[in-house]
């Protein structure tokens, strides 16, 4: 019965992934919904941006 519950969660997840925002740098899918305001970055670009800002001194 746990498998049936997981199947219904997956269906919900697929619906949520359809409305994912694109990264403003590389246009890859992000972890954020399209409705999120501001600059959206994919995990890779977020990591690179954090590296740049941390080593700017």
Any overview of this molecule?
- It is a single chain.
- By secondary structure, this protein is an alpha+beta fold.
- The protein contains two helices and two strands; from the N terminus they run H-E-E-H.
- It has a two-stranded antiparallel ribbon.
- The termini are far apart.
- The model is unreliable at 5-13 (pLDDT under 50).
Q: Which characteristics define this entry?
A:
57 residues, alpha+beta, two-stranded antiparallel ribbon, 14% strand, elongated
The main β sheet shows up as: 2 strands, antiparallel
Give the quaternary arrangement of the chains: single chain
Tell me the series of helices and strands, N- to C-terminal: HEEH
Structural classification: alpha+beta
Portion of residues in helices? 40-55%
Radius of gyration: 16 Å
**Inertia-based shape:** elongated
Low-confidence runs: 5-13
Q: Report the mean per-residue pLDDT as an integer.
A: 77
Total number of β-strand segments? 2
Distance between the termini: 56 Å
Count of DSSP helices? 2
Q: Strand order, biggest sheet?
A: 1-2
Question: How are the SSEs placed, and which strands pair?
Answer:
Elements: H1 2-17, E1 20-22, E2 29-33, H2 43-54
Antiparallel strand pairs: 1-2
Could you provide a short overview of the structure?
The chain has 57 residues and is of the alpha+beta class.
